[in-house]
Design a protein that fits this description.
With about 500 residues, the chain is of the alpha+beta class. It contains ten helices and 26 strands.
Length: about 500
C-alpha cells in the first residue's frame, strides 16, 4: 500500500541575520574570513542571501536615513498585495493629484510625469520605480493599496516591527530624511526578505532601461548598466542630504547570491565602488565557506532512527536524523524520501552540533518495512545521504469505549439530548481513523469522516432529536473504522433508544 506522510520542518527562521537583528550580535564563526574590505561608506553590510550569514559589517547597528532604498520596503508590500490576490500586475492605477504633482516636480527623482487623465498598470509603475526610482509612482501605488500614503507608511513600520526591527519610515519614497531611520543590518534584512519572498522583483531591477509613456529611462544602477560586476541584477540606489549616497546591490554567480549595502558614501561613484568591493568580498567569503562546508560534510556521521525502531500504521511517527562528527555548522537542504518517493524537502536548515532534524511519518497498514532516506545538500550542490529500513508494526490497532449510557426511553415528539462518546486506542496511541455516527444502520449526514484524530483518550458527541423518530426501537451507533481500513479493528459503541407513543 501507499504511504501517508506529514512532516514537521525545523526551518532557520530569518536565517542568521534575524538573530543578529534581535540579539544585536553578529553570528559567531570559527572560520577565518578573508581580510576585511575598505569602503568609504559610513555604514556597510555584506551577507550571503542563501545562508543569511553576515560576512562583514561597518557600523551595522547605527541607524541613518536610507533615501530611496526605502522603496525596497514599499515594493515588499506591493508584491505582498499581489500574492494576496488584492492586486495584479495588470491592475490599473489612477494617480492622485499628489502623485501627479510629485512626478512632475524637479525636486523629486524619477520625473516620470504621471497624468491625471489616464491610468497606469502596476507592472509599468514597478518597472519605472525599480529602474529610475520614480517617486510619484510609489505614491500612486501606496495610495491605491492603503487609501493614503500615511496609512501605507504605517503598514511599512508595522511590517518592520513584525520582523523584530526598530527601523522607522517617514514616507514611502525615502525623500524625507526626518523620521527615516534604518540600520545597515536592517536594510540588508529588508532587501534579503524581498529577494527571498518575492524574487520576481529581479525581473524589474535587472533591466538596464525601461520605456514609460514613450520615454526611455535608464537604470541608476551603473554597475549593472555598464556590466562592471559579474552577475549583478539589482537592487536599489538612493541619495538625499541626510542619507548621503546609498546603494543596496545584489549579484548571483553559480547559484550563490550575495547582497551588499553601502550607506552615506561620499559620492555617486564611491557608493558604486563600495558595493562592488563588498560584493566581490562576499563571493570570496562564499568560496571559502564552500571549502569548509564540504570538508565538514564529508566528516559527518549520519544516523536515522525511529522511536522503538518501529512505525505504527495511521500514527504520526517521528523519524530522526542524528548528526555527529565534531563541530558542525552547515547550511543544508534536507530531502526526505520514503520508498524512493520524495516525502518532504526542508529548505534553509542550519545544521549545528547536537541538533536533529525530523520527519513525521504516518504510514498506512502494510506487511513490509518502509525504506526511509534523507539527503543533505549544501548550497554548492555537494551532498551526503543516509537510509535505512524501518519496520511497520503488524499488530492490529484496537479501540474501546462507551457512549455513557446503553439504553434510553423517551416519548415521541420534539425532544433532544446530547450523547457523549468516549473512546481510546487500546495501544495508547494517537491515531487517525475513520469514524461515523449511525442511526438504525444508516450514516447520519454530516457526521462521518476518515480524518478523525483520536488522542489516547478521545471523545465525540451527537445531539439526538426525537422529532422524526417513529415509536419503537432504534439503535444509535458510534463506529470506529467504519471504512474497514486494514490494520485496525472495527468497533461499534451502541445506544438502544426506545421511543414511546404518546397517549391520545
Amino acid at each position: 500500500m501507499g504511504m501517508i506522510w506529514k512532516t514537521v520542518s525545523r526551518r532557520m527562521a530569518g536565517f542568521w541575520l534575524a538573530a543578529v537583528l534581535l540579539a544585536g550580535l553578529l553570528p559567531v564563526t570559527a572560520w577565518a574570513l578573508p581580510t576585511a574590505p575598505w569602503v568609504a561608506a559610513t555604514g556597510a553590510v555584506v551577507l550571503d542571501v542563501n545562508t543569511g550569514e553576515v560576512y562583514y559589517e561597518k557600523n551595522g547597528s547605527t541607524a541613518r536615513p536610507v533615501a530611496s532604498m526605502t522603496k525596497l520596503m514599499s515594493m515588499y508590500l506591493v508584491f505582498e498585495e499581489i500574492d494576496a490576490g488584492r492586486l495584479t500586475l495588470d491592475s490599473q492605477i489612477a494617480p492622485s493629484p499628489l502623485a501627479v504633482q510629485i512626478s512632475n516636480n524637479w525636486a523629486y527623482s524619477g520625473l516620470e510625469r504621471l497624468r491625471a487623465d489616464r491610468t497606469y498598470s502596476v507592472r509599468d509603475l514597478i518597472s519605472v520605480i525599480m529602474t529610475r526610482s520614480a517617486n510619484g509612482s510609489v505614491v500612486a501605488l501606496a495610495e491605491h493599496i492603503a487609501g493614503n500614503e500615511a496609512a501605507f507608511v504605517q503598514r511599512m513600520n508595522e511590517k518592520a516591527a513584525s520582523w523584530g526591527m526598530k527601523a522607522t519610515f517617514a514616507d514611502c519614497t525615502g525623500f524625507t530624511d526626518q523620521g527615516n531611520s534604518v540600520t545597515p543590518l536592517e536594510m540588508a534584512e529588508i532587501a534579503r526578505r524581498l529577494l527571498v519572498d518575492h524574487p520576481e522583483v529581479l525581473e524589474y531591477s535587472s533591466r538596464k532601461s525601461c520605456v514609460f509613456q514613450g520615454t526611455t529611462y535608464y537604470t541608476t544602477n551603473t554597475l549593472m548598466r555598464y556590466g562592471q560586476v559579474e552577475g549583478i541584477d539589482g537592487l536599489k540606489t538612493g541619495c538625499t542630504d541626510g542619507a548621503g549616497y546609498c546603494f543596496t546591490g545584489t549579484a548571483q554567480r553559480d547559484g550563490a547570491r550575495i547582497l551588499a549595502v553601502a550607506m552615506n558614501s561620499t559620492s555617486y561613484a564611491n557608493r558604486m565602488s563600495d558595493v562592488q568591493t563588498l560584493l566581490e568580498y562576499g563571493f570570496r567569503c562564499r568560496a571559502e565557506r564552500e571549502k569548509q562546508w564540504e570538508s565538514q560534510l564529508q566528516r559527518l556521521s549520519l544516523r536515522l532512527s525511529a522511536q522503538g525502531d518501529l512505525l505504527w500504521p495511521y500514527v504520526e511517527n517521528t523519524v530522526s536524523l542524528q548528526v555527529t562528527g565534531g563541530d558542525i555548522s552547515l547550511p543544508v537542504t534536507a530531502t526526505w524520501k520514503v520508498d524512493g518517493e520524495v516525502a518532504q524537502v526542508q529548505e534553509n536548515l542550519w545544521l549545528r552540533t547536537g541538533e536533529e532534524i525530523h520527519l513525521t511519518l504516518c504510514p498506512e497498514y502494510r506487511t513490509d518495512a518502509a525504506w526511509v532516506s534523507v539527503t543533505l545538500e549544501l548550497p554548492s550542490g555537494t551532498s551526503r545521504s543516509v537510509s535505512r529500513s524501518i519496520e511497520v508494526s503488524r499488530e492490529k490497532l484496537d479501540f474501546q469505549g462507551n457512549l455513557g449510557m446503553t439504553d434510553v426511553t423517551l416519548y415521541e415528539g420534539s425532544m433532544s439530548f446530547t450523547i457523549p462518546a468516549q473512546v481510546k486506542c487500546v495501544q495508547g496511541l494517537s491515531v487517525t481513523i475513520p469514524v461515523g455516527w449511525y442511526l438504525d444502520g444508516q450514516v447520519i449526514p454530516g457526521f462521518r469522516g476518515d480524518g478523525f484524530r483520536l488522542s489516547p483518550q478521545g471523545s465525540s458527541a451527537y445531539t439526538l432529536n426525537t422529532q422524526n423518530l417513529a415509536p419503537g426501537e432504534h439503535v444509535l451507533e458510534f463506529r470506529c473504522n467504519d471504512s474497514q481500513w486494514p490494520g485496525m479493528e472495527c468497533v461499534s459503541l451502541t445506544l438502544n433508544v426506545h421511543v414511546l407513543e404518546r397517549a391520545a
